[in-house]
């Protein structure tokens, strides 16, 4: 399928516009409509938005089709020594400043159009960090394969919260 042409808007932690949080919550509500009623972990997404947007260096890219937000990707630099990949790598790379890639979400009507890759690239490609790390639910092998096609490699598994899935930890060298 030919990638859809969309507008990508970049946001930083120190200049989030009014309504930004609501935009992310609306996209999430559409993307997880089925799970939102039954999955308590999915219902905690507003907490994650508040947590990540409060982090120094928070960065987000939102995809728009006209005036409609159709997806987003966000994350922030992780504190040295506290990166999600550390417990899985015996000898860390010499250069290991890490960007925590927290979320990539596209509304169902726009999936399969190339927007995910555009969002991922727009968020990650010009980062100053050496590495990017993310967590993927292994019950979604197509999502994991998509990240692998973008250069991410599984290095282990992690369950960050008692009520969360056990995620695959994926790492990518940025420079």
UniProtKB/TrEMBL annotation:
The N-acetyltransferase domain, residue ranges: 6-175
PROSITE patterns: GNAT (PS51186)
Name of a matching Pfam family: Acetyltransf_7
Gene3D superfamilies referenced in this protein's UniProt entry, alphabetically: 3.40.630.30
Entry-linked InterPro entries: Acyl_CoA_acyltransferase, GNAT_dom
Protein name, as recorded: GNAT family N-acetyltransferase
């Amino acid at each position: 399928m030919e990638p859809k042409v969309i507008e990508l808007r970049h946001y930083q932690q120190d200049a989030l516009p009014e309504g930004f949080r609501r935009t992310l919550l609306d996209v999430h509500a559409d993307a997880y409509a089925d799970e939102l009623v039954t999955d308590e972990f999915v219902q905690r997404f507003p907490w994650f938005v508040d947590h990540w947007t409060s982090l120094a260096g928070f960065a987000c890219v939102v995809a728009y089709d006209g005036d409609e937000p159709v997806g987003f990707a966000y994350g922030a630099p992780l504190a040295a020594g506290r990166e999600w990949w550390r417990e899985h790598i015996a000898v860390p790379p010499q250069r290991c400043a890490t960007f925590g890639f927290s979320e990539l979400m596209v509304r169902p009507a726009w999936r399969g159009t190339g927007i995910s890759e555009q969002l991922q690239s727009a968020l990650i490609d010009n980062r100053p960090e050496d590495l990017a790390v993310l967590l993927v639910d292994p019950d979604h092998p197509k999502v994991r394969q998509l990240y692998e096609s973008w250069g991410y490699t599984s290095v282990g598994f992690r369950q960050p919260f008692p009520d969360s899935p056990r995620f695959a930890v994926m790492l990518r060298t940025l420079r």
